[in-house]
Amino acid sequence: MKLNALIGSGMAAVFALTLAACGGGGNSGGEGVPTLRRGISAKVDTLDPHKSSAQWENIVIGDMFIGLTTDGPDARPEPGMATHWETSEDGLVWTFHLGDYNWSDGTPVTANDFVFALRRIQAPEVASQYASLLYLIKNAAKVNATELPPEELGVRAIDDKTLEITLEYPAPYLPGLLSHYTTFPVPSQAIETYGDAWIQPDNIVVNGPYKLVYWRTGDQLVADKNPTGFGADEACFGRVVYFELEDLTAVENKIQAGELDINNAFDGARAEEIEAKLPGWPRTTPSLNTTYWSFNTQQAPFDDMRVRKALAMALDREFMVKNVLTPGFEPAYSFVPPGMDNYAVTRPELEWKDLPRAERLAEAKRLLEEAGFGPDNPLSFEFIHRSTDDNPKVAPVAQANWADIAPWVDPIIVKQDTKVLYARLRQSDFEVSDAAWVADFDDPINFLYLLDSNTGQQNYGDYSNPEYDALLQQSNRELDLDKRAEIFAEAEQLMLEDYPITPMWFQVTKNLVDPSLTGWIDNAKDQNRSRFLCRDGLGTSE
Question: H/E/C letters for each residue in 152-182?
Fold first, then answer.
């Protein structure tokens, strides 16, 4: 029976139960289809590549869409829709040559699909949170601000199979950026017909190895192999089920019941216990991922740098990392994580990194008193934190750390659904909030641009410093990578001393992976596409 017919007949619940009952350790699903069952850590809000900004949504989106380049088995960029490309001597003009690939509705993927997509993400009515990531394309910022028409964007189709992209400045990291979902082509034919509903199972058109066939919000999504999609011929599993699982205890129970093959998170503080309980399942490796906490710099009292610095100094990162978080995490006193490419300089750090905690607390109290707080004017504020991963465990520690400054410091902690928290961050609807950033591509600018005053929604606390912005602009014009790294270091040091954020810890990846799966490669980008995964005894499915 066809899945769409099953769902259309009002039997979606029956279909969901069938999927949940898939047996054989994931070897088969409904209708005997080899099925991979993946847990993702939060609810999916959108599958539109231009409207998503969530790592867990990328797990699904990246299985369905392919850009000019794509993530390889180790997450390094390799040719996708583009088979090869050339770059002008000045590094500003890139010419991409597309292979013969089709959308799932049978229409060819052309250079005009990329022109349409790259113009669309800059359209103000789309309100993409990630539009600023692509401001390196000529005129992108002005198009996004409606100062220029979309036709002035530095992207053009020379012919159906040749795409030219002109940049504002040289970007040697462009192939890596082009594997990010913000740069993916999207089907104009579906969007023009269905509007925002184009991502629904009955309407979606994709060019990747899997195509969405079912979506029940808050529960699960299902994608079946798209036979003509890029990479489908190497895909082992005929179906992928994505479970929206925030409860890590439920994850472990589901694994023990034989109902889950992968989950993108686990309780890191219990790593040894989980290894004993699920031998071979926990997988960790150093990651390009920083947890940092933001201050709303436009809202009193956090418009006062002394308040921000005091709260940053009081946090006992060492205790959190040693006693609460996943083994392998490191306290962070800078923003850009270790291991980042193109940053071969002495890394900037907060100057009080090695100060004993008692001295940190004394200085924090002095700063707050200098800012006007004390017994007669207590400091009370709200700290919101994500409901997923280790974050709920760390929040009470932070609350106690801040209360250690003085009896008149009154922090209130509030747990938020992760999706809701990030929505509040984008609207600057917070006082102090936790957040994290995972590299989209391997270059310091991918972290540092978040604090540029022109970045928009992802500059959560509305930090603005013209000197910082100017340094980032200078880095864009510098072709010498060593000199460019020095500019980055100067900019990062300046930003750290302003305290719009406080770095908290550098993370390791945390996945639970069935040891019988093959093709999984731990990598700093924490990206493992479903098409590369298989299981002992399974061959490529049709």
Answer: HCCEEEEECCEEEEEECCCCCCHHHHCCCHH
